[in-house]
Write a structure and sequence with these properties.
The complex is a heterodimer. Chain A has helices at about 5-20, 25-40, 45-55, 60-65, 70-75, 85-110, 120-145, 155-170, 175-180, 185-219. Chain A is mostly helical. Chain B has eight helices and ten strands. Chain B is globular and about 60 Å long. Chain B is of the alpha/beta class. The termini of chain B are far apart. The chains are: A mainly alpha, B alpha/beta. Chains A and B meet through α1, α5 and α10 of A and α2 and α3 of B.
């Protein structure tokens, strides 16, 4: 599968949609929650807190990939592009959105943090994202085809969804806690992330593509 | 593919919904290459379901659909690239502005960037959409949305344009421009498959028609044959118009329409 012109366009469209004006109130509230978290919890590395908050703000991006707008699944099906290409483009946009949002939120949250991050904390945060993002994509792809949501959530619903996403992030971070925080085994932590990336690419993406087609046919 | 050969051929198409209702019930038709094909019927006759199946938006339970001589497949990029679709409920990314959306569709359909830009500018002018070019589509009126949808359906000059009620909700000037454009496309070999409730427009505009009733095609003929068709009840008389043929075909004569207070 190549990442051609059409896939790049879907990627750009999806990334842009992630930072739509309607999401700014929710993201701002999450940034405030992040500030409180790093000020109150001295045992939590501030950069990991930033990543948890940023990922929590991307519920729709992870768990509802085919409906950024009401009829997006149907509209995409009219174009000569494979579902596999669409899934990869959208998932890559989600990874970029998570990284961009983490950087943007770090600027706000770390300003208030009593502890400034050092090199080890940057490494810890990078490994956190590496181990968590692919399991989140795998679960998100599954949820996108099992429980698609056509309607865009209002701010209240979006906050509830963000709370649910935070729980999911915490669940997906267990391997990170065991492999890195408790045993400090960096090579195994990297290998785990790589394994999940392979599972995402060779199992989750093709299955989601097939399920998207079935979802369309039954809609 | 030569003029007269079918660009779209459907045989025994069946689609039932979860309720058990058969929206399409053994529908068969042939759409000749280069024709302007009017697909007409009452509300609920099965037109939109058929169109959604042809467009690949809906699966079917039985029967075959062949497009450009190949079996319909939702994965066939070549088929998708050669089709333009306007649905009764237009599909777009309504948070985009019209120029963004048209450029997006153009490039997704395989046009080079410059061609997509150029055609977008022309289409915006043609459909009088330039005035609200900066606003998202979700803020447009129904008529304007329909125009965006039409522009998106033709931007890549497809071989087959499928239009479900394209003239509904747009003003007379735009309607005339749309018909002119479609006729021009047809004269250059594009096949137009259109549904409409405006029967005199269908009669004047289309080269072929099919009347669908209760999920089946009950009449299929060339438009110029309508006035030569003998009435079933009065074999020595012929129909005066498509409307007369349509009413005669689909009306339930046993059920008299009457209001108690009139």
């Amino acid at each position: 599968m190549t990442f051609g012109k059409q896939e790049r366009l879907v990627f750009a469209m999806d990334l842009r949609r992630c930072f739509a004006a309607a999401r700014i109130p929710v993201l701002s509230m999450l940034a405030c929650a992040g500030v409180l978290l790093v000020v109150q919890r001295s045992d939590l590395p501030p950069l990991v807190a930033v990543c948890i908050i940023a990922l929590s703000g991307l519920d729709g991006q992870f768990n509802n990939i085919f409906y950024r707008s009401h009829s997006e699944l149907e509209a995409l099906s009219l174009f000569p592009i494979s579902w596999r290409g669409i899934v990869v483009a959208k998932n890559c946009a989600t990874i970029c959105a998570a990284l961009l949002l983490s950087v943007l939120m770090s600027l706000a949250i770390l300003y208030f943090s009593p502890r400034q991050p050092d090199g080890a904390q940057f490494l810890g945060a990078s490994l956190f994202v590496w181990t968590v993002v692919f399991p989140l994509l795998i679960i998100g792809n599954l949820r996108s085809v099992q429980e698609p949501r056509k309607e865009t959530a209002g701010t209240g619903d979006a906050l509830i969804q963000a709370a649910g996403m935070a729980v999911l992030v915490l669940v997906c971070s267990f391997p990170y806690i065991i492999l890195y925080t408790l045993t400090d085994d960096i090579p195994v932590t990297i290998a785990y992330g790589a394994f999940m990336a392979i599972v995402w690419l060779i199992r989750s993406v093709p299955r989601t593509a097939v399920r998207a087609e079935q979802l369309l046919a039954s809609s | 593919m030569t003029p007269g050969s079918p660009i779209l051929e459907i045989n025994g198409l069946v689609k039932a919904y979860d309720t058990g209702h058969r929206a399409v019930d053994g529908l068969s038709l042939r759409v000749p290459h280069g024709s302007i094909f009017g697909f007409i019927g009452l509300n609920g006759a099965g037109k939109t379901t058929t169109i959604r199946i042809i467009a690949g938006l809906l699966g079917h339970d039985a029967g075959t659909v062949e497009l450009f001589g190949r079996p319909l497949s939702t994965n066939d990029s070549e088929i998708k690239r050669n089709i333009g679709v306007v649905l009764d409920e237009p599909l777009y990314f309504d948070w985009m502005s019209a120029p963004e959306y048209l450029r997006f569709v153009g490039i997704m359909e395989g046009l080079p960037q410059e061609a997509a830009e150029k055609r977008t500018a022309e289409l915006l002018q043609f459909f009088d959409l330039a005035e609200k070019a900066g606003d998202p589509i979700e803020t447009y009126s129904t008529g304007m949305k329909k125009k965006v949808s039409l522009a998106a359906a033709v931007i890549h000059t497809p071989k087959l344009v499928i239009l479900d009620e394209p003239l509904e909700g747009i003003d007379a000037l735009a309607s005339s421009a749309v018909k002119e454009t479609l006729a021009m496309m047809a004269s250059r070999g594009t096949t137009i498959f259109i549904t409409s409730h405006v029967l005199d427009t269908v009669e004047r505009f289309c080269t072929d028609i099919a009347i669908v009733h209760r999920g089946k095609v009950v009449v299929e003929c060339r438009t110029d044959e309508i006035r030569k068709r003998a009435k079933g009840a009065l074999p020595h008389e012929t129909f005066d118009s498509l409307e007369e043929l349509f009413v005669d075909t689909v009306s339930d004569k046993a059920k008299r329409r009457q209001l108690s207070f009139l």
